[in-house]
Each structure stands twice: as C-alpha cells, then as structure tokens.
Write a structure and sequence with these properties.
With 180 residues, this protein is mainly alpha-helical. The chain has nine helices and two strands.
Length: 180
C-alpha cells in the first residue's frame, strides 16, 4: 500500500534546497497569493480554527505547561531585559500600583496610567530630595513615589506622584513631604 505521508516526507528531504530557492525567488508572488487566499476563505478559516481549538484544547494546555517548564531561564532572561526598558519599568510600577487600588477610592478617569508613568520617568532628571542626577552610567534607580502616601489618604493620580531615587523612596516610606 502506498503511504502518502511517508512519500511526502522523503520528497521534502530530497528537494529541500530547491524549495528554499523557489521561495526566495518568488517571495512577493507567494505573499500576494496568501493574502488573496486568506481574504477569500476568511469564514472557512474562522470555523476551522474554532473546531481545531476545541479539538486540541487539552493538547495546547499540556504543550504550554511543558514549554513554560522547559524554557524558564530563557523567559526570565527576556523578562529582565524587558524590565530594564522604559516601557518595562512603567508596567512594573503600574502593576504595583494596581495591586493597591483596593485601598484607594480614586475615580478611574483620574488614576495614573502607564503612559503617565512613562512621561514622569522620561522627564525625571534628578531626585527632588537628594538632588542625585539620574544617569545610565551611575545606575541610580528611579522609583515612583506618592507625595501624599496612599496609606494616608493620598490619591493615585499623576499630580500626587513623583519620581525619586530608590534610596529616598525607601527612606521616605509612608511619611508626608513635611515629615520627611
């Protein structure tokens, strides 16, 4: 009996370089064909994807768990690299803020956003308390601080936030500006 899959595998192995060269020389044509095909078969693909998703839901979960377990170091490396960027720092600070949202009764339209935090981080030149200049070379970590601490009734708004160096923010703790 003729095995189509085995034949296709063997064919792919022996003609690998030819196929690669063809794809390289006809790249634009292939892309335009794919776009046309996807446009023409949009609904068909949608129903197929739904069926496929339902049929292989458990397999996907198992694969995902296994991938997360085996690629832990790589994921941690990528996270560290991301959190060193401006966007990463903003998302970290926003995450910390949102965990404390239950303590604050700040209306949603007034709350500080990641965009606001990014702006504050970009504008911050030096720490307002110790006057240390923020620089890539000095490795002084920037830290988001609430002028009136949330624990003392301060709101989670842009007007109530400032950027301090990490040392000053830790020593300030939940004190008011006047007490510090």
């Amino acid at each position: 009996m003729f095995d189509q899959k085995a034949y296709q595998k063997e064919y792919d192995k022996t003609h690998k370089e030819e196929k690669k060269e063809y794809r390289k020389t006809h790249k634009k044509e292939i892309i335009s064909y794919q776009k046309k095909y996807h446009k023409a078969h949009k609904e068909k693909k949608k129903t197929y994807n739904k069926k496929d998703y339902k049929a292989h839901k458990e397999d996907r979960k198992a694969y995902s768990k296994e991938y997360l377990r085996t690629h832990k170091e790589e994921r941690n490396r990528k996270k560290k690299k991301y959190y060193k960027t401006l966007n990463g720092q903003a998302s970290l600070k926003l995450g910390r803020i949102t965990r404390r949202k239950s303590l604050v009764l700040t209306p949603a339209f007034l709350r500080i956003t990641s965009k606001d935090i990014r702006e504050l981080l970009q504008k911050a030149v030096s720490c307002p308390h110790c006057k240390k200049v923020f620089s890539e070379f000095l490795f002084i970590k920037k830290s988001l601080d609430h002028i009136i601490p949330i624990s003392r009734g301060g709101l989670d708004t842009k007007d109530n936030c400032q950027i301090l160096c990490l040392t000053c923010n830790i020593s300030k703790n939940n004190k008011l500006e006047s007490d510090y």
